[in-house]
Amino acid sequence: MSYIPHADPAALRVRDIAQWAVITQNLLQLGSVHEPPVPTNQNLLQLGSVHEPPVPTNLISIFDPGSRVIIQQRPLQPGLHGELARDDLGWVIVLDGRAHPLVQRFAVFHEGFHIIQRVRRLAVEEDWRYRERLANGFARRLLVPRRMLEEKLRKVTDLGQLCHIFQVARTLMQERLKELGR
User: Fold this and answer.
1) Are 166 and 139 in contact (CB under 8 A)?
2) Residue 66 gets which letter from DSSP?
3) Residue 172: which region, alpha, beta or left (left: phi > 0; alpha: psi -120 to 50)?
4) What is the mean pLDDT of the chain?
5) Are the CB atoms for 149 and 174 separated by under 8 Å?
6) How far is the C-alpha of 6 from the C-alpha of 57, rounded, in Å?
7) Sign of CA dihedral 109, 115, 120, 126
């Protein structure tokens, strides 16, 4: 993909939506006989039998069937909450052990996007900042799925309670509600 300058925030949102459409389309395409398709967020929840919040972090184990995913903790450089590596047996997600547990939950699914991206060889723009925004959006949407949030909003309107139910940080929930026009 070509590089598009990061000038207008509204243009970035439009571009993010367009990129998500491409990624979703790629995720839904059938792989080869030897490579099963990687499902969308909603299908990941269904495959993992997740019907209620909070989304368990062990859902990450189905992101690359046939490979193991282990999660380790150690101090990372400032501003970095997680990193992803691949070894002979599968994936290693390293979380900053000093980070808040809710930040660590987010980082697991953020890195999960990168697993899917690599497994499916998704063409994502070269700009690393853009890939990170896509990974953040993926994690946000997986941790706070639209259907589950809308169901909970029928009974719960307090932001703190919603954060507790979904086990996410306040800023993440605010961003998700804003995405959904709430």
Assistant:
1) no
2) T
3) alpha
4) 81
5) no
6) 32
7) positive
Tokens of 12: 């970035």
Residues paired with 68 in a beta bridge: 90
**75 neighbors 97 (Cβ within 8 angstroms):** yes
pLDDT value at position 50? 94
Q: E strand or H helix at 60, and its extent?
A: none
List Cβ<8 Å contacts ≥24 apart for 8-15: 12/133
- Confidence band for 121, pLDDT divided at 50, 70 and 90: confident
Which residue is it, tokens 């060889």? 121
Cβ 64 vs Cβ 115: under 8 Å: yes
Full-model pTM: 0.77
3 state SS of 37: coil
